[in-house]
Every structure is written in C-alpha cells, then in structure tokens.
Specification:
alpha+beta; Double-stranded beta-helix; four-stranded antiparallel sheet; 6 helices; 29% strand; globular
C-alpha cells in the first residue's frame, strides 16, 4: 500500500498526521500544498525529523538547471545536463542514505519529478534478476572517496535500498546485469509524476523510492527546486 495524500500547510495538522499515520508515510510519499516560502518548507521538514545540512552548511539547498559544463564532475547534472535524469536515490554515496527528501517549488514548472518504488521494480523482476540485485557489488566513486557497497542496507532491522548510476560503478557481473535490468525497467514502467503547479512540496521516502526528472525545457531554465535531507 502506498500512502499518497495532498495536505494544506498547517504545521500542527501535519505533526498530528505524522503521529497518526507514520507507518504509512514511511512506505511512500505525499504532497503538501500551500508551501509559500523556504520557511514553510523548513517547518514541514522539521515536523518529520532531523534536518541534515548540505555539505556547504545550508539546510535548504537550491537546485537549478545546469547544462553540465559547470557542474561537479560525475554528478547527474554533469552527465545529463538539461536532459532527463535517470531514476536514482539521493545521497547513495553516504554510509546510510538520507531517509527522507523534502522537495519544494514555489513557482510553477513544467519539468516534473518522477517516482518509482522498489516494490514496483521488484514486482516485475524475474527470479534471475532478483538474484542479480541480491549479489550486485558496486564501488562508490566520488571526488571525496571510493568504497564498496551493495544495493541493500539496514538500520535497526529496517531494510533500505540505494541506487545511483552516476556514483555507483558495477564491479561484478551481477551488478552489470542488474543495471541492464534497470534500463529496461525505466523504459517500461510508468512512473508516478509530481506536477509542480506552484506552492507545493513533496516528501519522499528515499529508502523505498527512486526519483528522476523530466527534460528541462527552454522556458524552464530558471526553475528552482528547494531540497532538504532528513535523517
């Protein structure tokens, strides 16, 4: 069961909703309307959990379209520029990826955010492909470090998955085969879409969902997406 609910912004109401239905929220994503400022977004994020500052110290990071030329080497922006972003987990290179992502956009944008759950992915995988996922080994390669990882991780008995085709490089046959499966999946599975109609936020369970982005059109190059990581 996926929890998807649209709420009007009211901090007390949100906190109450979290307390009453938190198990369902942890299974998916939900949208919140009437987010008019970064302060509103910060209040929403704080009502869910502990905010993790961006490495530059900012609690709210602004993502703007980039042709790729000025982006950090190896990042999604660097590799794909204004083109569609493939499905991925945020902070996949962390030892424990951020649990939740809060994204907000104050102004309207035609460039949508796409979501697919790991449950959906595994429901269409063959037994052999599931075995590839189980045995896949990757090396995380960033400007700061290199380390080995798998798709799966756990925290206090709860399982999560990570996947980022930019920073996670396959090092065995199973990982290469699984990456091939993911290309096919992204071509055949219809993702859920977050339509940025303005004054909206979405909270995503980063352990259970992958997200991507559609192509940035010419009139959307000033698009500003606000993002907050939550522990």
């Amino acid at each position: 069961m996926v929890f998807k609910k649209s709420l009007k912004f009211d901090e007390k109401a949100i906190i109450k909703t979290m307390n009453l239905d938190f198990k369902q929220i942890k299974l998916g994503f939900f949208e919140v309307n009437n987010i008019s400022s970064s302060e509103d977004l910060s209040k929403l994020a704080s009502s869910i959990g502990q905010i993790i500052p961006h490495p530059n110290g900012e609690k709210i990071y602004t993502l703007s379209p980039n042709t790729g030329e000025d982006a950090i080497k190896g990042t999604l922006s660097n590799r794909f520029g204004l083109s569609e972003f493939p499905l991925h987990s945020d902070t996949a290179f962390w030892s424990q990826p951020s649990r939740y992502i809060v994204m907000g956009m104050i102004k309207e944008s035609s460039c949508d955010t796409q979501l697919i759950s790991w449950n959906e992915i595994f429901s269409v995988l063959s037994p052999q492909a599931k075995n590839y996922a189980k045995n896949a080994s990757y090396i995380i390669d960033t400007i700061d470090e290199k380390k080995y990882t798998s798709l799966f991780f756990s925290n206090n008995g709860e399982r999560g998955l990570r996947f980022d085709p930019c920073c996670m490089k396959p090092v065995n046959k199973a990982a290469k085969k699984f990456n091939d499966e993911m290309v096919i999946i992204q071509q055949n599975l219809k993702p859920k879409k977050i339509i940025w109609s303005g004054k909206k936020a979405v909270v995503i369970d980063n352990w259970q969902y992958l997200h991507g982005r559609s192509t940035v059109s010419a009139h959307d190059k000033k698009r500003k997406l606000l993002r907050i990581y939550i522990r």
